[in-house]
Records
---
Amino acid sequence: MKRCSNLFALGIVLVVLIILPASLFGYQAWRTAAAGVQVVDIVARVPEQGGFAPDRLSFRVGDRVRLRISSPDAVHGFAIPGLGVDVDEIDPGKVVEVDLTLDKPGRFAFACTRWCSVDHWRMRGVIDVAAADGAALPTAEPPLYQRLGIDLDAAHHDAHDLPAQRPSAGRGKALGLTLPGDLADEDARRAVAPADAFGQLRADPANSALGDDDLWNLVAWAWLKDVRPDALARAKTLYARDCAACHGVEGKGDGVAGKKLPGLQKMDPAMPSGPADFTAAAHLLAASDAVLQGKLLRGGMGTGMPEFGSLYTDEEQWAMVAYLRTFLFGE
Ligand code: HEC
Ligand SMILES: [Cu+2]
């Protein structure tokens, strides 16, 4: 009787320790294979060592894909914004698995989201998802700067009318005045530089009783009135993650990762080297939102400014431009 119960106990132990895990594992392997999941290993190294390998992947709509991402060196992040993937941490020696749902055709950029080295911003890749029927992708609407015929590579002139103190959107709003049409309307305003808006307001006889400070407050109000607070907060987070290392935490263009970049000197030797200083009023107030968004989404200019058009949604880009305005305009 005793022997019998011993054997029975042993049987249970065997089932729990060996047969159950083995069958679960077998079931998993069977399920993965049966469903036709393509498993792709991606190794993430700092850009100096090659970045993501592979950094180009091609699939078709409907493919089932599991990415297995590992890092042999530093802590990296891994985001595919267009597919809603955002893995904050790929620790060295660990494998992170990401299952992709490829239900729409398109080109989806992926990027590291941690400053793993000074060249971190080069750490990117692309996933192409072809339509199941091989149809071509719909072409996107050209960005605003192109529709306005703006040449991003032309040097732009500095503004000469500058605010004497930090303009305040709140004080501008409190004036209770009606903004002229091209400043009231968000789309129209994006084509206007703040310094030109100031000039336009100054030239209007209806504003002759207002001082320059009040007019600048009105300009600040015109520029910050349309952005939603949550979108602005998101842009602030993205700025800290993606921009501060080059443009500086306070926007002064003094981030460590930007030190060796050429900047606008490439276009004009008289211009400063390195990333743009967003607190330089003469420069920033002469640029329309369309110019800033264009440079953000396209990057380049031979300066080392990365492109963010493939990583940010339209709304994130415009919110980021509004956030850049807050380096000069207060609440
Ligand atoms: C690797 C460094 C680097 C990173 C990261 C970077 N930038 Fe830049 N950026 C530059 C350089 C260099 C320039 C060219 C200098 C200039 O335009 O004055 C530039 C220029 C710009 C300009 C054009 C300014 C002007 O008036 O011409 C904008 C706008 C800008 N960056 C926004 C951003 C934003 C927003 C981010 C983050 C999402 C970002 N940058 C991330 C280096 C960087
Ligand atoms: Cu990185």
---
Amino acid sequence: MTGQTVKIAALCECGHMAVQQVNQFINRGELWWDAEFSCDSCGSYRCEHAGPGTAPDDEWRQALLAANGAARLRLVRPVPSLVQAMKVFRDVSGVSLPQARGLVEQLSSDGVVGTLAEMEFLKTRLQLRGIPVDVDR
Ligand SMILES: [Zn+2]
């Protein structure tokens, strides 16, 4: 399983420092993320989120990138048409047509950058459509 984790210190209701852990991974072919909170002092534990989709950019995704570094998705060799790649970006990321076009341009130049789980997920989807891509870490 391709996945990444980040732990962030958080204050518990009991007044002690606790840990929030966020995991991003691929689950049954979908990009998933979950968040859990656990406190060693009072033993409280709760799952704060579990489901498909991209982790919220401001808190978790940036923390995942900071802790694990970014992965880069690149075209392995030139292909005659990137229409299929554009479809994948539109389906998977829900972006507009101009945004999808921008992502395709990045794919064939410097690469598309994101968390490892996101890039591995896109890689699988793009390869299914016959687009030769790979992920640099
Ligand atoms: Zn506590």
